[in-house]
Every structure is written in C-alpha cells, then in structure tokens.
Amino acid sequence: MYDILQQWSSYDARQHSIRIAAQLLIQGQEQRSLIGKVQTYYEFTKPKIWSLLVFTSLTATFVATRLLPIAFSPLGWLTAGAAITAGCAGCNSLTNYHDRDIDAVMLRTRHRPLPSGRITPPAALTFALGLIALSLVLSALLNLLSLLWMGLGILDNVGVYSFLLKRRSALNILLGGFSGGLPVMFGWSAVTPGIIGSLPRAPIPILMAGLVFVWIPVHIWFLAVSYRSDYSRARIPMLPVVVGSTTALRLITLFSLIMVPFSLALYFLGYFGAIYGIVALASGIGVLAGSLWVLYKPTDTNAWKMFKVTSPYLFLLFTAMIIDAVLTR
Predict the structure, then answer these.
(1) By the 8 A CB rule, do 234 and 101 touch?
(2) Are 136 and 128 in contact (CB under 8 A)?
(3) Annotated domain spans of the chain
(4) Do 94 and 124 contact (CB within 8 A), yes or no?
(5) For the chain, how big is the Rg over CA atoms in Å?
(6) CA terminus-to-terminus distance, the chain
(7) pLDDT band at 36 (very low <50, low <70, confident <90, very high)
(8) Cβ within 8 Å of residue 2, ≥6 positions away
C-alpha cells in the first residue's frame, strides 16, 4: 500500500511539473508573440524615414533654444518629440495602408507587413489614424502654429503625395516633398510661447526646411533610377519611369547643384559657424561629384550606391548644426 501511495505521489509530482512547464511554455510563446507584434508594427511605420525627420525637427527645436531667448521645459521637449514622432510614423503608416496593393506588386516592398499578411488592413488603418490623432492633440498642446505645421504635413504627405499624385504624376516627389521640410518648421515654432505661437528669425527654419525639401528628390530619384523596372511594373509614374533614366539623372545633378549653395546659405548669412560651413561644403561637393559620376556612368548599381551615399547627408548637416550651436552660442 505504501509503495502504491509513493508511486501515485511521484506521478502527481510529475504531472504538476508538466503543467508548470506547459504554462511557462505558453507564457513564453505569448511573450514572443507580443514582441513580434510590436516589432511588426514598428517596421510598419518605416522607422528609417521617420527617425530622420524627427531628428531634423528636434534639431530645429534645439537650435531655436540656443538662438532665441526662450526657455523650453522638459515637458515641452517630451511633448514636441512625441508629437512629431507620432505624426511622421502615422503618415508613413497611412501611406503604407493606401499603397498596400502596389507594395504587393513591387519586389522591393512585397515583404512589408501589410502585403505579407503580418498586419490586417483594418488593424493597420486603426493604428495609423490613432498615431495621427495623437500627433494633432499633442501639437495643439504646444501652440496653434505647431498644429498648423503638423496638419499641413499630414495633408501634403498623405493627401497630396500618396492619394493624389503618386499614381498619377511624375511630380509626386516634388509636390509631396514639402511635407519633408515641415517637421523643421514644427520643431522651431514648438518652442515659442503663447496659444498661437510664432516663427521668430524665420529665415533660419525656412532655409533648414528648404534644405530637406531640395534633398528629397535627389535621394528618392536615385532610388527610382535603380528600381525603375519595379516602379514601371507597379505603374507608378516616378520621374525615371516617365522621362527615362538619363533625363532623371540630369535633373538629379541639377538639384544636387542647387543643394550646395542652399546649404551654404546658412553659413554665409551668419546663422552657423565654420564647423557647419565645412561639413556643408564637403558633403555638398561629395553629393554633386557622385551625381556627376552616375550621370556619366548611368547604371542601376551606381544609382543605388548614390542612394546609399545620400542617405546620411541630412544627418551630417543637422548634426553639424547642433555642434555649431553648442560651441558658438
């Protein structure tokens, strides 16, 4: 009898251990599933795009605090950072939702969360609209001018670029590129006090925003040249698809040429010092030389290389602005 009870107790202990192990396994799977969902939604927002725009916006905020006699509280920084992050991520998410059909056709984008089935369209739309709503609410807490820049950015990126022009006009990047500069305007006006807000020393944020606007077609058209057949397959009238790679590369070179004096204007007008001026000159000449190189050696591979080379251009310039503002103000 004692042996039977002992065996039963041992069996019960083993069963209990199995139940605990099963529960731990289920919890681990649920945790991994949750982490996987978070990573998928993070990927859905195109973090490489919004992180650069957020950086340009907060650089403008920082420079404004150094140049203007205005104190900006930690809460203000947190609100501005959260607002611009939600706005940029929300725009990317909403354009991803709208473009899910063409993303499924293009080789470059078919593995994104929506066309690959990792996110459902209703969930994607709810997520995108939630981010945009959050960005507008937070912007309104700063001032009405910041809310205006945020609203215009959403309207241009989602309405003008994605809904109206992307599938209809080769001017999609140019007219839709205004939204790329608006985070700078948002970041500058965010520090200004009052319900309405203001734009003091307006030439500085306008030139900073304009620099982003001029850079966008250079960067994106290099990508479009290297993936010209992919855009053509999806019937997207990107500039190289409509006018051909050679003409597109000539226009890229023209915009690169415009970008150099545009970036140097911030130095020659006295807004930034030698550190920024050296970085702007060196990086601008580098992009211009690369554009000329691809123009005379027009291959998809070379265009792709220049797409990668131009990627850190804005980061370098805006980092130089921060360093310059710290050391000279």
Answers:
(1) no
(2) no
(3) 18-328
(4) no
(5) 25
(6) 89
(7) confident
(8) none
Token pair of 284, please? Answer: 């601008």
Q: In the chain, pLDDT over 70 holds for what percent of residues? A: 90
Alpha-carbon distance of 255 to 234, in angstroms, equals 26
pLDDT at 14 over 60: no
Mention every residue, 6+ apart, whose C-beta is less than 8 A from residue 292: 253
Mean pLDDT of 217-242: 94
DSSP sequence for 266-297: HHHTTSS-HHHHHHHHHHHHHHHHHHHHHHHS
Which residue has 């500085």 as its token pair? 204
Own/partner long-range contacts of 258-266 (Cβ < 8 Å, ≥24 apart): 258/214, 259/211, 259/214, 259/215, 259/218, 259/284, 259/287, 259/288, 260/284, 260/285, 260/287, 260/288, 262/207, 262/210, 262/211, 262/214, 263/211, 263/317, 265/207, 266/204, 266/207, 266/208, 266/211, 266/321
Question: How far is the C-alpha of 207 from the C-alpha of 184, rounded, in Å?
Answer: 10
Tens of pLDDT, residue by residue over 110-127, are: 999 999 999 999 999 999
Distances (CA, A) of 285 to 27, 78, 252, 254, 266: 55, 36, 14, 13, 16
Spell out a b/e string for 50-61, using b for 16 or more CB atoms within 10 Å of the CB, else e: bebbbbbbbbbb
Q: Where do runs of H (alpha helix) occur along the chain?
A: 2-44, 47-67, 74-98, 100-105, 121-142, 144-154, 172-176, 178-190, 203-226, 228-233, 239-243, 245-268, 274-296, 300-310, 313-328
Domain boundaries 18-328, CATH class: mainly alpha
What was the pLDDT predicted at 69? 82
Confidence class for position 306, pLDDT limits 50, 70, 90: very high
**Rounded CA separation 40/90 (Å):** 14
The DSSP call for residue 197 is -
Cα distance between residue 265 and residue 51, in whole Å = 25
